[in-house]
Design a protein that fits this description.
Number of helices of chain B: 6
Order of helices and strands of chain A: HHHHEHHHH
Strand content of chain A: under 5%
Strand order of the largest sheet of chain B: 1-3-2
Helix content of chain A: over 70%
Structural class of chain B: alpha+beta
Shape of chain B: elongated
Oligomer: heterodimer
Distance between the termini of chain A: 27 Å
Number of helices of chain A: 8
Largest sheet of chain A: none
Amino acid sequence: MNTDLEQYRERAKKYWFMDGLVEIGTGLLCFLLAIVFEIENLFNQSPFRDVSFFILALLGALAVRRLIQRVKEHSTYPRTGYVSNKKDPVNKKVVLFAIAFTAVLLLLQIYWLVFHPIPIEEGPLIGGLIFAFIFTLIAYQMSLPRFNLYAILSLVIGSMLSLVGFTDLAGAAILSALIGIILVISGGITHRSYLQYNSPYEGNNGS
Amino acid sequence: MREIMGANPHSLAEVDRLIHEPSRSIILAVLSAVESADFLYLQRETKLTKGNLSVHLSKLDEAGFIQIEKTYRGKVPLTLCRITEKGQEAFEIYLKQLRDFVNGSSGE
């Protein structure tokens, strides 16, 4: 009984991810990042450098979130209802995990700069690690196994690009674009199957 | 079931009868995990008819376990439900009693 109730709680918590729209939106954001990285790559002194890059990424993320919300209002909520997630207090475990990951990443980069153990470009590999970390975190927090697959793919793509010898910015652009494609395709499949199994509800959404 | 109940006769007798009804415990389980959920989501999860769900929601509302807000999204009426602090506490106690009962009966 307890386990059954836990399943209802879990399902409600990950409702935001169930229709695949988050993946499609995140995929679009990755394309945006890819374009920014490519512009930086082409014009070495681009206006997107440093702080403006983060502002652009943040604005892009906010715009994508709004877009997802609007699409959900038309396709998801009329079918399976509306759920608003709790603004949970910061999870200490997650914060510790993030700090540890950042520290490992920094040490790895310093070690690489000093010793250069393998003659490859480390940029795309580190990019792949960052994507993998974010996807693993979502998979862990939301109990969504498909995000583990994205994490593995990010690592594989990042490693391959490093081995092939793409420089930081070119590698980051290709990595972001490929992850964007994976997310859009996977999100599209999830969304299609969601629409297939959930027809729009007839009538008012109220008692 | 009779044997399990015999293992620990007091635990289940003490549970809140208002919550110890499958549909209402599902409603509280959902609402305890989120900020709010609408009528349609709860109807899908409980698989109840509109009328039955309304009755269960009213009972939980009367007990002060949930708050019901009638609003609109655009021109579409929307019934939003959220759990109250009292409801959250009552549901946590209920879950603990269930766990204690299951652990007690499996330990014997």
